[in-house]
Each structure stands twice: as structure tokens, then as C-alpha cells.
Write a structure and sequence with these properties.
single chain, 234 residues, alpha+beta, Phosphorylase Kinase, domain 1, Transferase(Phosphotransferase), domain 1, 2 domains, 5-stranded antiparallel β-sheet, 38% helix, 20% strand
Length: 234
């Protein structure tokens, strides 16, 4: 783990004092041993690889000071699981982190290819690291060699998620990994249940985004075909 504030600053100021304490507690309980290197640095969260024994895990750290709390709250306030959540910035980030952990568990139960969640505390989520010697690349950076087969697997997972009563909510080539020509969905913080009034809108957006990319790489799938695969109708 970084040992000084100067080192923390090299990672986009994600390691504020509160976050460092959270990381220290997780490390002290054996969830991970040592942070290695950044995988992705973003406006809402930063993602790092970390050592855990002889293997590696992934740390997703939501920012406490610069995250878009208003946008987070607009998504989470309609989720039946968080109807009692008050409009308090830090609590929203904590709930957002917990929400992604719970969504990953449900997605795994539904048979999806996605990271296994290992633990969460406050604004830090610990997950399985997808990849071997290095993290698996995003689909946007590594298009599939067999577009039809790959996108067929993506749509299959979208259907599994829908049949389990969930929708990803932010699906695109930016939230799918290409792991040795196998799609792995990531970023499940937007995922919500059918009881949520915005469920249908999120599903329509996911289908549209995936269809746009599917057409771009000439996979043979378009919006109508994807919708029929997931819903059984056009």
C-alpha cells in the first residue's frame, strides 16, 4: 500500500485519509496484501490491482469528494432496496458500493460471466481480478476475432440477467471485458431490479448501446434481433 500522502496523490487523490483507513482495515483482515498498480483512473472511481497471497484481486475505490452524488442519488433513490436512503453524500457513496457488491452476487447467481465480489467496506469494493498475467482488456480496446460468436455470448448474458429480474443499466463496449475471446461484464453499480420504475428505460438503453457496437463490428446482430433474443418479441 502507498505509505505517504505524496504517493497517494500520484493516483488522482483517491487515497484521502478516510479511504486509506478503510484500505488499511481491509488489508489487516487479509482481504488483500498490497496495492500494485492502477488499472483505470476515472472521475467516479479508481480501480487498482492488488496482491492477495499468490494471486491478485481488484480494488474499486469510489471517490468521496469528487463523485457525482446527484447522478448517483437519482439512480439509487428509485431502487426498492434503498428507498430509505437519505440524500447524504457519503452515505450515497457507501450505498453505491454496497449496491455493486450485491448486484455482482446476484449476477453470478444468474450464471453471468462477471467478477466474483469478495468484500466491501465503505467506499471500497474488492473483487476477483479478471485476467491472467495482466487485467483483461476492455472490449472497446480489443474487438473480438469472431464478432458473431462473441456478441451472441453477450446477448445470452443479457437474457440471463433479464430472466433473473435485473438489468445492467450501463452496458456497452466500455463495460465488457474481452478475456481470451470470452465476454465478462463489469461495472454493476447501475444494475437494478424489475420493481424499479426505470427498469424498462435502462433495458432499452442497454439494448441500443450493445446493438450499436454489434452493428459496428458486423456481428450480424441489430437492435431488433437483440430485443427478440432477450424478450422473445420485437
Amino acid at each position: 500500500m502507498p505509505r505517504s500522502r505524496e504517493e497517494w496523490k500520484t493516483y488522482g487523490d483517491v487515497f484521502d485519509t478516510f479511504t486509506f483507513r478503510t484500505l488499511f482495515h481491509l488489508a489487516s483482515t487479509g482481504i488483500f496484501d498490497k496495492i500494485e498498480s492502477p488499472i483505470a483512473l476515472g472521475k467516479e472511481s479508481n480501480v487498482f490491482s492488488a496482491k492477495r497471497g499468490k494471486g491478485k484481486v481488484c480494488l474499486k475505490i469510489y471517490r468521496l469528494e469528487v463523485a457525482d452524488f446527484k447522478r448517483m442519488y437519482e439512480y439509487i433513490r428509485t431502487d426498492p432496496r434503498y428507498v430509505e436512503l437519505k440524500h447524504h453524500q457519503r452515505k450515497i457513496v457507501f450505498a453505491w458500493t454496497q449496491r455493486e457488491y450485491r448486484n455482482l452476487l446476484k449476477a453470478r447467481e444468474a450464471g453471468l460471466r462477471c467478477p466474483t465480489p469478495l468484500a466491501f467496506e465503505n467506499n471500497v469494493l474488492v473483487m476477483e481480478l479478471v485476467g491472467e498475467k495482466s487485467p483483461a482488456p476492455l472490449l472497446k480496446n480489443q474487438p473480438p476475432q469472431n464478432p458473431k460468436k462473441f456478441m451472441g455470448m453477450v446477448i445470452e448474458d443479457m437474457k440471463k440477467l433479464h430472466d433473473s429480474g435485473l438489468v445492467h443499466g450501463d452496458l456497452s463496449e466500455y463495460n465488457i471485458l474481452n478475456h481470451n475471446e470470452i465476454p465478462v461484464m463489469i461495472d454493476f453499480s447501475h444494475t437494478t431490479q424489475k420493481k424499479n420504475p426505470i427498469f424498462d428505460d435502462l433495458l432499452a438503453r442497454d439494448i441500443k448501446n450493445v446493438a450499436r457496437y454489434a452493428v459496428k463490428i458486423k456481428s450480424g446482430f441489430d437492435e431488433d434481433k437483440i430485443k427478440k433474443k432477450i424478450l422473445g418479441k420485437v
